[in-house]
Amino acid sequence: MPENIKICPGYRFAGVHCGLKPGEALDLALLLSDCPAVAAAVFTKNRFPAAPVLYGRRQLAEGSDLRAVMINSGNANACTGHQGEVDVLTVVEVLAAALKLSPAEIFISSTGVIGEPFPVTTVLKGVEPLVSGLEGEALPKADLAAAARAIMTTDQVPKTVGIEIETSQGLVTLTGLAKGAGMIHPDMATMLAYLLTDAEIDRQTWQAMLQRVVDKSFNRISVDGDMSTNDTVLALANGVSGCYLTSSSDLEALEGGLLQIARELAFMIVKDGEGATKVVEIKVVRALNIDAAEKICRAVANSALVKTAFFGQDANWGRIIAAVGYAGVKINPELVNINFDQIRVVTGGVRDPLYQEEDGAAVLRQPEFMVKIDLQSGEDEFTLLTSDLTHEYISINADYRS
Amino acid sequence: MPENIKICPGYRFAGVHCGLKPGEALDLALLLSDCPAVAAAVFTKNRFPAAPVLYGRRQLAEGSDLRAVMINSGNANACTGHQGEVDVLTVVEVLAAALKLSPAEIFISSTGVIGEPFPVTTVLKGVEPLVSGLEGEALPKADLAAAARAIMTTDQVPKTVGIEIETSQGLVTLTGLAKGAGMIHPDMATMLAYLLTDAEIDRQTWQAMLQRVVDKSFNRISVDGDMSTNDTVLALANGVSGCYLTSSSDLEALEGGLLQIARELAFMIVKDGEGATKVVEIKVVRALNIDAAEKICRAVANSALVKTAFFGQDANWGRIIAAVGYAGVKINPELVNINFDQIRVVTGGVRDPLYQEEDGAAVLRQPEFMVKIDLQSGEDEFTLLTSDLTHEYISINADYRS
To answer: Which of B41, B49, B111, B119 is nearest to B79 (CA)?
Structure first.
C-alpha cells in the first residue's frame, strides 16, 4: 500500500480469517463508521442477483443510513434461493447484536463461488473476532490493508486508495478499497468497491454523483463490473469532517475526488486482472456518436484474439481492425486510422506507408500503452481499459474451485 | 480422412506449396469443375471485407457460373486497400489463362494474416504447378486431401466430408471441405467452406437453400464464421449427375444432404478449434422466443469463464447461470433448470437437491457433452456448438505471426 494513502477519519476497518478460505487467509472484512453515514450504491444488472444484492437493494431503497459493512470472500451466496436470503438476515442480526446497532444499519456483500450453499455458521464464527478487532489500539493503515485483503478472491494484491481534497468548508478525505480480477467481458468475476468520505452530503446528490462516477470508472474497464451476480459499489459519507457540501463548486470538487479514487481502483483492478501482464487503454475518437464509439471500444477491448496478441507483444493490428469491423457499427473503412501510442500504424484502413513493425512492437513491449482508433467521422469518443489474455488466466480459471 | 468419403463426380482438386507458408507446407488449393457450375455464396458481414470477398460478392451478383476456385492460406489479402483488389484481378487473370477459362468463371479466397501486403508474385508462382497437378492420373481422395490441407491456417487437421443421397432422378453426391480454428465469439478466425454437388439446380433455389443451411450449421458454432474479414461459404452445383432437381421432395433431400455435410464440417471446425479439447452443445429450450434463446445460448457459449471451466473439467454451473443472467434477456430465475447431459444440476435457479458434484464432473470429463438450459417460459429453442478455452489457445494466438 502506498505510504501516503489518506485514511478517512471516522471509519474503522478489520479483516479476519473465519474459515471460508483455506489456511489462514483473511476472508471476512468489516468497515465501521463511527456515526450513521449517508449511503449510495450501484448494483449488478445480472438477472440472477445474489442474496446480499437483493437485500442491499431493498435496504438502499428504504433509505436508512449505514454504520457497518461486512464482506466475505470464498462464497458468493448467489443462486442459493430462499435459504441464501435467510442466511443474509441471520448474519445481519448477529452482527447488529455484536455491534449494538440496528439491523437496518448493516450492509452485507459476498464474493466467491456461485451456487454453493452459504456456510453461515462459518461466517458467524468470524463475527466476534472481527468486532473485537475494532477495539484496542487503532492501526488504521494496517486495518484497512487487512480488510482489503479479506475481500480478495483471485486478486493478487489488495487495492486501496486515499486522497484529500480542498473544499470551501475545509479538508475532506476520500478512501476506497476494491476487489476485482477476471478480465473478459462479458463475464462474471465479481467487482466490489467501497468508497468512503467524511464529507456530509445530501442523499439524492450522493446517489446521482456515484452513478455518474461509476459510469466513468468501473464501467470503463472490460471486467464487467455490472455483470456478475454480486457486483456492488457502495459509497458512504459520514460527515465527521464537519464539511457539509452543497455549493456547486464543492460538489464538483467532491465528485472530482470520487472519480479520481474510483478510477485508481478501476486501474488497479485491470492491472490485477487474472494473469494480466499489461494494461491497455482503448480509445475510439471522432465517432459519429457515443454509442458507436462505445460499441467499437468494447469489441476491441473484449476480443480474445486482440488480448492474446497483446500478451504475445505482437503488433497484429489486423485483429484490431477486424474487431472494429464486426462491432456492429456502420463505418467508413477508408477513413480509419490506428495509433499505438504515438506510432501511426494504420492510415485510411490500410497499413501506414511509413509504419515499421519494430516501432509497433516496441510500444507493445511496455506494461502500459494506448491503442487509438480514429474513425474521422464525427466528434464523439469513448475509452476503456483492458488487459491482455494470458496462460495464467487459463490456469486460474480452469482450476478455480479445485 | 474417412475411407468411405464420397467424392463428387465432375470435380478435380489440387494443393501445392507456393511459398506463403514456411517449409514445404501446402498453401495453395484449386477446385475445378469439369463444366460450369451454378454458384451460391454467403460472405462475411464484417465492415472490412477482404479484397477477394469484395471481388466474390460482385461476381456472384453478376450471376456467372463458375469453373474454378483458388484458395491461398498464409495471407488474408484483407485491409490491403486498392492494391489488394488489383492483386485479386491479377491472380484471376493469370489463373484463367492457365486454365483456358474466362476470368468470370474463377473464384478466389484468401485466409491468413490481415493487413500484410498480398504477396502476389509468390502466389502466381504456384499457379503452374497447381494447374499441372490436375493433369495426369487422377487420385481424387489424395487430391481432395491436399486441397483441404492447403487451406489450413491454425487448423490441426484437414476437414472433408462426402455423402450420397437418393433422389427421384438418381444418386447425387455432396462433397465438402472447410477450414476454421479460432474459438471465441465474436472474433475473426476465418472460416472457409466449399460445398460441392453434381446435382443440377436452379440458381435462386440454390442460393436460398445455402443461406438456410448456413444459418443452421456454420452460424451455429461459436467461431463467428460470419465475422472474419474473409469468411466465405461457396456452394457449387455442376449437374454432371444428370439429376435436375425441381420437385419439392428432391429439393428437400438435397437440402437435407447439404445440411448434413455443412453440420459435419461445422462440428469438425469446433472440434479443431484452437487448442480445443472438448465439443460442447449448448441448448436453450422453452424460451419465450427464438431471439431470447439465441442470446442466452451465445452468452453461455462465448463466456471465457464457462469455456475455461470446461477445460478444467470443473462442473462450475454458477458460471453458466451467471452468463444466462447477463445475456440481456428477461427471465424468471426461479424457473431455470440446467442439465449436463442426463444429469440434472440446477432446478428452479438453485442447485438440484439430488445433484452430486461427482456426477456433473463425470459428464465434463467426456470429449463431447451437452449443457441444456430449460427456461420453462415458452416453446422456442436454440442450439450452438462451442469448445473449451485452453492454454493451447493462448500459445497459438500469442505467437501466431512469429
So the answer is: B49
B258 and B124 within one domain: yes
Question: How far apart are alpha carbons B196 and B212 in whole angstroms?
Answer: 16
Q: Which domain holds residue A169?
A: 11-271
Instruction: Read off the pTM.
Output: 0.83
The per-residue pLDDT for range B76-94, each reduced to its tens digit, is 999 999 999 999 999 999 9
pLDDT in tens, chain A (402 residues): 556 799 999 999 999 999 999 999 999 999 999 999 999 999 988 888 899 999 999 999 999 899 999 999 999 999 999 999 999 999 999 999 999 999 999 999 999 888 889 999 999 999 999 998 887 666 788 899 999 999 998 888 999 999 999 999 999 999 999 998 665 444 556 889 999 999 999 999 999 999 999 989 988 887 543 467 788 999 999 999 999 999 999 999 999 999 999 999 999 988 887 778 899 999 999 999 999 999 999 889 888 788 888 888 888 888 899 889 888 899 998 999 999 999 999 999 999 999 998 999 999 999 999 999 999 999 999 999 888 887 777 777 676 654
- A5 lies in a domain? no
Please state the separation of Cα A20 from the chain's center in Å. 22
Please list every residue in chain A whose beta carbon sits closer than 8 Å to the beta carbon of residue B334.
Answer: 81
Determine, yes or no, domain membership for A352.
yes
Is the N-terminal amide bond of B52 cis, ω within 30° of 0?
Answer: no
Rounded CA-CA distance B243/A114 in Å is 58
Which residues in chain B land under pLDDT 70?
Answer: 1-3, 136-138, 182-189, 223-227, 397, 399-402
| Number of domain units in chain B | 2
Point out the domain boundary residue: A255, A271, A287: A271
Residue B4 resides in a domain: no
Both A238 and A329 in a single domain? no
**Same domain flag for B190 and B311:** no
CA distance B39 to B37: 6
Q: Are A286 and A376 in contact (CB under 8 A)?
A: yes
Question: CB-CB: which of A115, A325, A397 is closest to B321?
Answer: A115
State the greatest distance between any 2 C-alpha atoms of chain B, in Å, as a whole number.
71
A111 and A221, same domain (yes or no) = yes
Is the CB of residue A144 less than 8 Å from the CB of residue A175? yes
The verdict on whether A190 is a catalytic residue reads yes
The span from the CA of A153 to the CA of B298, in Å, is 27
With vertex at residue A179, the alpha carbon angle to CA A173 and CA A183, rounded to the nearest 5 degrees, is 130
Q: Same structural domain for residues A298 and A227?
A: no
State the catalytic residue, choosing from B154, B173, B175, B190: B190
CA distances from B35 to A94, B66, B108, B236, B319 (A): 83, 8, 18, 11, 53
Q: Buried (b) or exposed (e) across A358-374, using 16+ Cβ within 10 A?
A: ebbebbbeeeebbbbbb
Q: A259 and A215, same structural domain?
A: yes
- A46: chain B residues, CB-CB within 8 Å: 322, 325-326
Tell me which residue has cell 442460393: B207
Same domain for B84 and B152?
A: yes
Task: Give the distance from CA A397 to its chain's centroid.
Answer: 19
Instruction: Return d(Cα B68, Cα B103) in angstroms, integer.
Output: 10
CB contact under 8 A, B308 and A398: yes
Considering CB atoms only, which of B81, B314, B351 is closest to A350? B81
**Rounded to whole angstroms, what are the CA distances from B337 to A32, A47, A365, B291?**
40, 15, 46, 19
State residue A119 phi and psi, 5-degree precision.
Answer: -80, 75
Preceding amide of B49 cis, omega within 30: no
Instruction: Report chain A residues whose CB lies below 8 A from the CB of B309.
Output: 397-398, 400
d(CA A222, CA A389): 12
B1 belongs to a structural domain = no
CATH number of the domain bearing residue A302: 3.10.20.340
